[in-house]
Amino acid sequence: MQAFMSKQVPLFITARFRSGSTLLWHIFDQAKGYHAYYEPCHDNLLAHIRYTLPMDSHRGVQSYWASYQNQLPLIENRHQPEFGLSRLLLEAHESWDELKFYLQSLLQSAAPAIPVLQFNRIDFRLPWIRTHFPTARIVHLYRDSRDSYFSMTRHLAPEAADNPGQGHVYDLLEWSVALAEYFPFLADPGIQSLYERHYYFWKLSYLMGRRCSDLSLSYDADFRDNPALGLEKLSQAGYLDSRQIDDLGPLIQPQSSGQWAERYAESWFQTIEKRCEQMLDELGLNAYFGRLPLAEIKKQHAAAWSRYEGLSLNDPARSLLMEYSRQRSEVTRLLFLVRNGSKDCSDSP
């Protein structure tokens, strides 16, 4: 068994939305000797720190934001909404000093504890993380694509969930706009459902995570089906003190699986997944994403990529995303005031 790692080594957790990343963060948040940050690249981080309470589905979580409470000046000075909306693909050779210094500040502020940063927005930035944080260890978590999709869309009416242009609390449409210049098939009018968008992101995230992480965990196999296995793997990798496993085990209360069958036939998923897999094969992404820079993949599969020339989105779309982010911060504040019975929603935070 590998020895428990040094306190100097930070952990970066990467996962898609609704994949169990809150559970993994909660484990480290409750473990002794760790300082665990929740979603430090969220574009509306400050608004959420001030106003957002835990979701009912995140069982046992009392607060997402306790680790930030003594660091609000740092967040106010260094966090940028762009961290959650722009440059969602960052490759090893690229520079983004503002993001680098912000994350470095969080790591330093965690001392003397082991810093743990949980993200749902760095899954296409792992080569950049590898280059700029070479001592960090990356833990990747993934969940069954269909289960995570149903968890993300269960609140929508069926006709809305099937609409590829549907606005969505987990940003599938916004990510499609932000990444269309790199993956122009996301702007293809031939996309027929929201699940098609989800599956592209899910598969690309899976490929990058498996190929660029130090440890890749399955929510289904390592936490849902065998609650002790994930903790054991974290301990064996040296990321979790084995003496704490017994105390942390009760935190794992697995979500059920297969609920998508309540709404969709398996053939519906299979048809979409087959079409997406064929596209990812033709473009060379299944074989090389996470192994080669995107420019090299495109060069090697130029004929397949050429069908999308002129289909990308432009700068005004990014401006719209930023304005949308600012509006969401205000909505977050107003919802908080409504929930708490405030009569004056014009008060500044």
Main attributes?
alpha/beta, five-stranded parallel beta sheet, globular, Rossmann fold
Strand content: 5-15%
CATH topology description: Rossmann fold
Question: What is Rg?
Answer: 20 Å
Count of separate DSSP helical elements: 18
Count of individual domains: 1
- Termini separation: 49 Å
**CATH class annotation:** Alpha Beta
In the predicted model, the low-confidence regions spanning at least 5 consecutive residues are: 342-349
Largest sheet: 5 strands, parallel
What is the mean predicted local confidence, pLDDT? 87
Principal-axes shape call: globular
Short description, anyone?
With 349 residues, this protein is α/β, with parallel strands linked by helices. The chain contains 18 helices and 5 strands. α2 packs parallel to α18 and α10 packs across α14.
Please describe what this structure looks like.
- This is Sulfotransferase.
- The chain has one domain: Rossmann fold (3-Layer(aba) Sandwich).
- It is globular, with a radius of gyration of 20 Å.
- It contains 18 helices and five strands.
- By secondary structure, it is α/β, with parallel strands linked by helices.
- It has a five-stranded parallel β-sheet with strand order 2-3-1-4-5, sandwiched between helices.
- The C terminus is likely disordered.
